[in-house]
Amino acid sequence: MDINVRINEILENDIIREIENKLAKPDKTIKEHTMDLIEELNKLKKLGYISDAKLFSLVEKGCIYHDIGKINKEFQKRIERSKDKKVKFNDEKEVAHNILSIYFIDDKKFSDINDYLKVLHSVLNHHNYCNTFEVMRDKKELISELLEGYNTKKIKKSIENKIAEIIEDKESIKIKGYLHKCDYNASAGTVSEYPNNFLEESLNNMMQEWKKSNSESDWNELQKFCIENRDENIIAVAQTGMGKTEAGLLWIGDNKGFFILPLRTAINAIYDRVRKNIIHEKDLEHRLSILHSSSLEYYLNNLENKKVDENFDLLEYENVGKQLSIPLNISTMDQLFDFVFKYQGYELKLTTLSYSKIVIDEIQMYSPELLAYLICGIEKIVELGGKVAILTATLPPFIKDLLEKNIEFKYNPNGFTNDLKRHNLKVIKEEINPEDIYEKYIENKNAGKGNKILVVCNTIKQAQKIYEDLEKILPEEDIKNLNILHSRFIRKDRLEKEECILEFGRTYDENKNIDKKNGIWISTSIVEASLDIDFDYLFTELQDLNSLFQRLGRCNRKGKKDSSKHNCFVYTEIKSSTLRDNKHGFIDKRVYELSKSAILSIKEKGQIYEKEKIALINDYLTTDNLRSSDYIKAYDKEYDYVKKLTPYTISKDEIELRNINTIDIIPSPVYETNIEDIKNFENKLKEISDRLKEKGIDLKIRDDLKKEKIILKDAIKKYTVSIPYYEVDLYKNAIKNGNAIKYNPIRLSEFETIDIIDCDYDEKGYQNKNYTDRKSKQEDYML
Length: 783
Fold this sequence. Notes:
- There is one protein chain.
- Helices cover about 45% and strands about 10% of the residues.
- The longest helix has 19 residues, at about 170-190.
- It has four domains: about 5-190, Hypothetical protein af1432 (Orthogonal Bundle); about 200-410, 3-Layer(aba) Sandwich (Rossmann fold), CATH 3.40.50; about 425-610, P-loop containing nucleotide triphosphate hydrolases (Rossmann fold, 3-Layer(aba) Sandwich); about 660-780, no CATH class.
- The strands form five sheets. It has a seven-stranded parallel β-sheet, sandwiched between helices. Strands 12-13-11-14-15-10-16 form a seven-stranded mixed β-sheet, sandwiched between helices.
- Helix 11 (about 170-190) packs across helix 19 (about 345-355) and helix 31 runs antiparallel to helix 32 (about 700-715).
- It is of the alpha/beta class.
- The protein has 33 helices and 22 strands.
């Protein structure tokens, strides 16, 4: 139906004339802006993202009513003056337009009182300028004055309680979510959704290319399972190397999709795989995006061919991705699942996910708190109509039980494995030591064998210690082959290291032969999930069975190397301070003990089938065995807390979904080395901020300056690393006591600074200085 006709059916003639002549924005009337919203809503309907006729009608009414409050005289005065410069909202003379708009909503236009309440709620709360009900109570006279002369509707005193009753209703959430989506994109002049009409064809084209090299190529059992169950929620346990990424994409098909992974390194790798090998960068800006905290930095460093394309706006690309408008997204959990905290406006994310398909990769890697947020979120997404696929190399029975408590999944109980024996384990009842690693490296080097050695430690501190010890005993010519990767490197260095380990850890060389190199990489659990690296030997501490089998997946990944002799060395003794029974531990003691019993049960066996790994997890990590563990207690506590949260009681700024108290800083040695560049970027930022304060600046110039400001901030942030808050506190106390050098912070804007911390930073990464005798918390170094 014509948009004008719908507006005429809903609104009275005098109001229609008002919205035709009065402004919503300096360059648009209220009616023009309203029509933009409805156009976006119609696009969502055309894409199949809003199919229920009644729901569509209610959202449409929300769009029509949402900005009518702007016809008030004070708003119009302010918007006229804002054509020359931005004029601030005057709390003494004005009332937020979202509040005023509800007085125009006619309950007689609704067949059901609850439908009226749902639309009223979406309009009233489509902005978060103030406590709406408090304003309605305290500013009755001002509201009457601003609405004088208009045929407004009476709002009952009981409205606050009635809205509280429907605020979490599925339809209420969707009406408000769709209104947010349409309003944000109409205001920004961006598209609310681009279609996914390319993924199935792109995957089929990739298969046809494979068939040219091997006529027997076909989707494997896992991938066919995903194709056959596209309309179901699924759980698929499949060994490393079975093509879970392709399987997840095949399950998503030509639908809105999100691929969730726990680590940024893996996200970047999968983004590149899809970008280069599946969609071949065709129409990239409308098809594929990264969602994580350093997405812009990754784009800036990896889309060289796009940056020279005059039609490609890299900053716009990143912004559209963050608005969730791109059909296929590779994301961290925290970018999406913060909606479980029900902050004002959370409905936009949840509504978008309600018509999406979400792949969760390696769910077993999350802490109990994050798992609670994730499962709460999954349950809500499925309740509202979204679909979820759990794809993982290992799945403990207790996590499966938690997932299936409120959701029905299609599941293959046998998992997806083959008969390859990729791993030959030697289980050692000692702590990990550098001498064993050194001896294996020298033995392999002398024998001319493949000599890619991966060492995985449970803590950064341990990884740094192993690095130091190996540096002392390795021959001088081999020091260059010693590397370390963990989360306490500045962004610039970590990105370079991530690229290096991916290159070093490839299976084949340019001639399709097994790639042989000499080298040792020492790391932490950041290499565990979805990272396509293939080492010849693994030395690892035991953490738990899931983590162990993930680590094994980085060794002989493709199963193309000889495993008749030990290629994986597992050390079962770990620092007691890392166990959760300890005040500061991060490894659940019960999970560790069960895992240790499991791995010792195969001590003499050596080679191990993939099915045997799954069987060990199924036998040991059960709900019954973990019922009284700290892990389950922590999970239950967080799950219950999130489930019972009242909407809008937590602001988005208060949410710390990662459950890690860290802050970005610049290490003093990094600052001293790069001081000229950093100060230059800081000075340019100040110049831009000053220019943006100038009156009458051209809008195009303003936009260009804002873009340059983002790029300059990102350039400074390349020198930052995340460290625990308490270490910053220790540093500041040390300054007071005269035990540390004081640095002035780097100013990014009027309200944003980055501290420079007096610390150590070298080839091993960040290391704190012990300003006091207080011992560092082991849990802060687990990655």
